[in-house]
Every structure is written in C-alpha cells, then in structure tokens.
Write a structure and sequence with these properties.
383 residues; 4 domains; Chaperone, DNAj Protein, Chain A; four-stranded mixed β-sheet; Helix Hairpins; alpha+beta; HSP40/DNAj peptide-binding domain
C-alpha cells in the first residue's frame, strides 16, 4: 500500500514553518498516543506514522530531500521505521523525535529549557513584619528598618571564585545545569549532581563566601509608609531581597504592616470610634465635654440633656485618611453614662431625695416601658 504524504499525516501545508510542524506533531502525538487509545487497534500504527512524518520534516535537510524526491528520498532505510542503518528512523530516532515534544510540554516545569540560565539565578524574595502605631498610620512616616539577608560578596563580586578567577563550565552537564537519561521512548531529565544545577563549578572558591558568591549581612533600609495604611498592607521594595546566585538579580523585600491596637480609638476602615464615659449628671442635665482626636488635638462636644448610654455622635473629618483617593473618615463618639460610686452620706441622701421626688414623674421612660412589658409577659404566662 502506498505511503501517505507526510504533510497530510500531520495535517499541515507544504509551506508550514518549523514551529507549525512541531505544534501539529504535538497535537497528533497527544491525540494518537497508544496509552490514550486502548480501544483503537489502529492507534499505535497511526502514532508511529505521525512520528515518522515528524522525524522527516523537522530536519531541514531531510525535509528538502522529501520535498524534492518524496518517499523515494528515504529508500534504503531512512523511512523504513525499523532500520538502524543508513540514517534510518529507528528506536533512537523515535525517542529523539518524541523528546522534542516532551521538552515542549514539560521543559519549563523541569527546567530543561535554557538550563544554563540557572548559573545566574534570581535571589529569593524576603518578608519583613513591621508594627506601627495608629498615629503613625494616620500621618504616615519614613522609617528605618534592619534586615539581615544574603548580599553579593564584595571579595569575589558574586562569582564565588577567588583571586578574580572565573567559574568554569561544569564538565558533567556542559554548563546546562541538567543531565538527561534515556528511558524507553522518554528522555528523563534531572539536576546535574556535580554543579547542583548551576552549570558552573568553582575550582578555587572565595574564602569570604566559601564559593557561594553571597554572604549574610544586616542592612539598614529606609521605608516610606504612606498615610492611611491598615493592618495587612504590603509594601514592596524592589531589589532589596536576597542577592542572586552567580551575579543574578536580587529578589524583592515585602514589608507586611500591622497597626497596633490603640488605648482610645477603634478603627473600622477610615472611620474611628471612641467610647467616652459621661457623668450621670452631665447626661441628665446636658453639658459640654472635650474628646481627643487622632491628630493629637481636642474637640468640644455638646451633650444633649437626657442622653443615654450607647448614643453616638459624629465628628466629621476626624477619622483616618484613605490610602488612595484623598477621602477622610469620621470619628464617632459613643456615650457611656457612668453610675457614680464611693458616694458620701450626703450624696446618698440627695439621691434618695431625688428618687422620692421622681416617683410621681416620668423621668425614666425606658425603664417604665421595660417593666410594663415584663408585667404583660407574666400575665400572659398565667393565662
């Protein structure tokens, strides 16, 4: 039976680029792989046909020969599928073809692509937790922090080699940082055991860093904390993380802020809440009180006569600034009417006199309403 056209097998045109050929092969190989087509007896033969077509078309010289002479270009073994001589497409060629797609599918995950790039790998990101006061969150500040991390060794300039020597290519992996082993149809890749994936070895290591190219050091960094930050706000300092290996770029430093609890104010977003004790006489007769504000100032608040515990009063624009947008929150005063303690005999007598005077008057409407409901409840239970 006449062999099918290789372009037809892969479903591509004769003008297809090398990338289009690889994509078509990857798609067909996944579709026809025998492991995924157990119920299709023809899948294995079709899978081999696809691999044969890809092996011929991925190589520019073989493709040129096929375009000129067709299948006759490979007579004598090249296109036979089982021959090992005369440049034929045998087991090793199949493994090589499938390895290309394996790299394409899993190369980024396993690090096979550009393994030599690990020679100058990026440094790790760092985290630093910083606690500030509510007043500092209100006004913003410039703060100096101390961070201990790995920095580039100045003695060897990050190369890890002493006396200005340059690291050498690893002879095991030829500088790629990865080594391959053939296992059946697959090429398995792992980190080079000689250079630990760096692609380079240091014959004469630097005495300061022991060949690591980095040393531990404490640094003082200035951090700009904007007004309006909240707990959980993250500030990124680019390039202030750990130094990279073999002269690679440094990582970043992330500062996570925590705003400490305040003895006077509770925060909810951009609003502040302050619980203010009020004397019983002031709550009953009315009056003025002074309350603190987060900027360190004072605000005078008028207490209406007959105010009860839990009553809230708003001071507009006395809250926290928004981190973005320029808005400013409000401050809410919650009154807490305080019952007097440690009374003198005279004070007790005055309160008893007040109680006698108020028996015939409706001075406590909330209390009267509550006990009316209690009486109705008891009567309903009896019924």
């Amino acid at each position: 039976m006449a062999k099918r056209d290789y372009y037809e097998i892969l479903g591509i045109s004769r003008t297809a680029s090398a990338e289009e050929i690889k994509k078509a092969y990857r798609r067909k190989a996944k579709e026809l792989h025998p492991d995924r087509n157990g119920n299709n007896p023809e899948a294995e033969a079709q899978f081999k046909e696809v691999n044969e077509a890809y092996e011929a078309l991925k190589d520019p010289q073989k493709r040129a020969a096929y375009d000129r002479f067709g299948h006759a270009a490979f007579e004598g073994g090249m296109g036979g599928g089982g021959s090992r001589g005369g440049g034929g497409f045998g087991h090793a060629d199949f493994a090589s073809a499938f390895s290309d797609v394996f790299d394409d599918l899993f190369g980024d995950f396993m690090g096979s692509r550009g393994g030599g790039r690990q020679r100058a790998s990026r440094g790790s990101d760092l985290r630093h937790n910083l606690t500030i006061t509510l007043e500092e969150a209100y006004s913003g500040l410039q703060k100096t922090i101390k961070v201990r991390s790995a920095v580039t060794c100045t003695a060897c300039q990050g190369t890890g080699a002493a006396s200005g020597a340059e690291p050498q290519h690893c002879p095991t992996c030829s500088g790629m940082g990865r080594v391959r082993a053939q296992q059946g149809f697959f090429t398995v890749e792992r980190t080079c055991p000689t250079c630990a994936g760096l692609g380079q070895i240091v014959n004469d290591p630097c005495r300061e860093c022991g060949g690591a190219g980095r040393v531990e050091k404490e640094r003082a960094l200035s951090v700009n904390i904007p007004a309006g930050v909240e707990s959980g706000t993250r500030i990124r300092l680019s390039g202030e993380g750990e130094a990279g290996l073999r002269g690679g770029p440094p990582g970043d430093l992330y500062i996570f802020l925590d705003v400490a609890r305040h003895p006077l104010f509770e925060r909810d977003g951009i609003n502040l809440f302050c619980r203010v004790p009020v004397k019983m006489t002031t709550a009953a007769l009315g009056g003025d009180i002074e309350v603190p504000t987060i900027d360190g100032g004072r605000s005078r608040v008028k207490i209406p006569a007959g105010s009860q515990s839990g009553r809230q009063m708003r001071l507009r624009g006395k809250g926290m600034p928004a981190l973005r947008g320029g808005a400013v929150g409000d401050m809410f005063i919650e009154l807490a009417v305080e019952t007097p303690v440690n009374l003198t005999p005279r004070q007790k007598e005055l309160l008893r006199e007040f109680e006698r005077e108020s028996e015939s008057q409706d001075n406590s409407p909330e209390s009267a309403s509550f006990f009316t409901k209690v009486k109705q409840f008891w009567e309903s239970m009896k019924g």
